[in-house]
Amino acid sequence: MLSTLVVWLYIRAGVSRSVANIILQSFQLIISTTFLLVETALLASGINVKLSNIQIPKDVRTAYTHHFPEPDIIRTACCPSCFSLYSQPIPWKCQWKESPRSRPCNTELWKHQNTRKGPKLIPRCFYTTQSFDSWLQFFLSRQVIEDSLVQSYNRRMNHPQAAFGTDMHDVHDSPAWRDLTGFFSTPYHLVFGIYIDWYNPFTNKIAGKLMLLLFL
Prior knowledge:
Elements: H1 2-11, H2 17-44, H3 60-67, E1 73-78, E2 85-86, E3 110-115, E4 118-123, E5 126-130, H4 132-140, H5 143-158, H6 175-178, E6 191-196, E7 210-215
Antiparallel strand pairs: 1-2, 1-5, 3-4, 6-7
C-alpha cells in the first residue's frame, strides 16, 4: 500500500523521482524502527519475538513494476536518415531507394555501444510502438472505460432512430450505424475509428475525408 501511494504521488501528483525515492526510504526507516521498538518492548516483558522484516523498494520505478504491469513494447530497427523499418535480419546499411533506378540510402544501421561485457553492436535507431493487444487489455481494465462503454451502449439502444435527411449530431444517430446493432450485441463489442484528414485517395478535395473502422 505504501508503494502504491508513492507511485501515485510520482505519476499523478507530479512528485519527482528523487523525492519519491526519499519517501520510500523514509517509509522503510519508519517501519524498521517501529518493528525494532515493538520487539524491544516485548522483550522487556519477557516475550522474545522476531518480527518479519518488510522490504520496501528503494526506487519508485521498482515499486511501479511490482504493482503495475509494464506495457508490451515492440522495438523495430529504423534508419536514422530515411526512417525505413527493418526486421530481422537487419542489413549493415539501409537499402531503401526512392525509385528503382535511384541510389540506395546507404546509411549505416549499426553502431558500437560499450557495455559491462564489452563493446556490442546495436541498431543506431529504433521505432518504438506498443503492442495493441496489451494496450487494449490495459485500456479495458480501467473502471471508467467500462462504465463509459455501458453508458454509450445504453444511450445507443434507448435513443430514437434518426430518419434519413434529418439532422444528426453523432455517428450513433446514423441509420446505417443502427443496422450494426445485431453485431454490437453487448457493450464490449468495440469499434475503433481512425479519422484521417490528410489522406486523399482520389487526389481532389471533393473526395472528402477518410474514416477507417476496426471491428472487435
